[in-house]
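Let's practice the habit of predicting before peeking. Look at the sequence and jot down your guess about where helices and strands might fall. Then scroll down.
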Amino acid sequence: MKQFAIHPVDKSLAPQILAKIDNLNKPKGSLGRLEELALQICLIQQTLEPSLAHPCHLLLGGDHGIEREGVSVSPREVTWQQMINFTHGGGGVNMFCRQHGFKLRIVDVGVDYDLSGIDGIIDRKIARGTKNFLYEPAMSEAEFDRAIQIGSDLVDDCVAEGCRVLSIGEMGIANTSPSSIWMHLFTGIPLADCIGAGAGLDTPGIRHKYDILSRAIKSSQLPTVNSPLSALSYFGGFEMIAAIGAMLKAAEKHLVILIDGFIMTACALAAIQLYPAAKDYMIFTHCGDESGHQRMLHAMGANALLHLGLRLGEGTGALCAFPIVDSAVRMMNEMNNFDNARITKYF
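Done guessing? Here is the structure:
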């Protein structure tokens, strides 16, 4: 696997950042989470004047062999149909990117359909979906390495355009299944507590999903948390591994990384297994209604900004949370302080 130079954020600037925050013309601590976000972003960028210039959103698409086992209520053709819909500007991700000024990159990493001639889709296809991990590894080591590199290269492209903040979304029917398995393997939370309805499974469907995933874990004969790379390649999707590569490169480049819902949180969990310091660069934006998402966040020591009941994927929760992150940056750059405003500092 490609190696990344990821280091914990340098906290030596923290006293100066906190002094600036505390001297803004407001009661100390009165802007709550915004103050916490401002501190984190300033430390990521090592500045008292942070920037969220040129925000970029990666929308990564891929299909999953495990879908053949009926673990999702949606058929796999929805993946390619939605990918094409995104090029027409008709998806939720399109709307939110337009609203908040994000540049959207739609990337085919492993969709089971020929999208090579579709304008607006970046062709990085590794294969037409992963293999069925109930019977064999989802991908080879070479495919895993390629997916990591694809995500890394996409971030390099964003950075070359001046990007300082990155969000990532996914489109891949059945990708809650590998997400649930990773959550179970990396946190030790019982598998039953990691599995939810996905796109809308009923109770019998959830029981079936649990049975399939339990059998897959048993047949894989993998160790658990002691072998993250093996678990990632055995169960992951191409779009998910590319997302991990993007997160790791973004951390290396000191970008602010907005983490979306259940699937992207599972990818963040995986990235942290590989490079614990990557967490310093992540803002967890949304906790959805997918069973286990709050448990996974808690296991990571993360607290999401929003809980809107979203379960769309595509990175929409991260995009919805962007104005809050932007407010934290504007607080640092635009709010007056006690001295300039000639207000008595009353604490």
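How did you do? Residues 141-160 form the longest helix (20 residues).
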